[in-house]
Amino acid sequence: LMRKIGIIAVLSLMVLAIAAVPALAQREKPTGNAQFQSGPTFTLNADNSVTVTGLLTGLGSDLVDVTLSVSATADVSCTNGGRQLVEAQQDIGDVSVTQPAQQPENGRLALNITSPAPSSLGTQNPCPNRNWTPAIIPGTVEVTSATLTLVQNGTNVAGTPIEHTF
After folding, report:
1. Which residues are CB-contacts of 119 (< 8 A; sequence separation ≥ 6)?
2. Residues with Cβ < 8 Å from 20, sequence gap 6 or more?
3. Burial level of 11, CB count in 10 A (0-12/13-18/19+)?
4. Residue 98, pLDDT score
5. pLDDT digit string, tens, across residues 78-129
6. Nearest residue to 70 (alpha-carbon basis) of 42, 35, 112, 90
7. What does pTM read for this prediction?
8. Which residue, of 21, 36, 57, 79, has the fewest CB within 10 Å?
């Protein structure tokens, strides 16, 4: 009889534990009051990549997704089949990098993320027609802005997105 009571008690505890796991695993809001203790500092590097650093506090223990997006322009040459050149100005396709699932330590997260350098044209051809071939003119890439976004439990935190203009 005692063995049956013990088995029933253990099974009851297991059912309770299994029922509690989804409630603990998914929160609707961030766990803390996230804010920057220092930064964010946006740095335009010599190769046109962008680095953002800073220290976040008040994050609690839930994972944070960090995304950095960069926009740029460049001068573009357009060449037709007869090798005639025409210059145009074009937005370069935005580049971004994400560091998913960053684990805060004691509610703090040291931020250090670097984007790739913008180096390709967007989806639209800036040339007079689609028979012309576009190419970025070397040395003309100019980063115009960068945007930092921090997401915890599906919610933007620490006042993000934060946009910085260069």
Report:
1. 48, 92, 95, 136, 141
2. none
3. exposed
4. 96
5. 898 888 887 776 767 788 999 999 999 999 999 999 999 998 877 777 887 8
6. 42
7. 0.75
8. 21
